[in-house]
Request: fold
Amino acid sequence: MTTKSQHPLSNLQLELLKTFSRNVPDEDLLAIRKMLTQYFAQKAAAVADEVWESEGFSKETVTAWRKAHLRTPYKHTTSGSAE
Reply:
């Protein structure tokens, strides 16, 4: 019985499978993992910088966020049961 994969491989996964169709030493594997992590971290930082600029955020914004009380208020009951 054949079933369709619930999570097909992404284009990146397929490309990596083709590129690394042979075993590589653990040292190389760790170096490649580090390079990929750095690459995606740089991309995420670039997007965050774009949002920061487009929204006009500043150090004052961060200070205001730090002082803000954003927790959800919960009702306290006297009977001890949660609502």
The chain has three helices and no strands. The helical segments are 11-19, 26-55, 59-67.
